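W.,

You were right to be curious about this one. When I first looked at the sequence I had no strong expectations either way, so I just let the prediction run and decided to look at it fresh. Below is the sequence, 69 residues in total, followed by the output.
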Amino acid sequence: MVEGSDNETATPKRKGERNPDPYYAAAVQNTKEAARRLLEAGIVDAEGRRIRKDLPPDMREGSGRDFGG
């Protein structure tokens, strides 16, 4: 071996072992940031469900929906 080469300290890969994805950490960070922005904008609730705003207030869940029938 050549002195100072990186091959001396490199650990051999086992067959089938995958290399870590270099973009994974950035993707996780971007996803968390996007979720935080949606929550702050009132588009989703704390559990990630979309908050419907296309219904009039009297037709939304929890309102006393009385259609006068």
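Here's what jumped out at me. The CA atoms of residues 13 and 19 lie 9 Å apart. And, maybe more interesting for your project: DSSP finds one helix and no strands in the chain.

Coffee later to discuss?

I.
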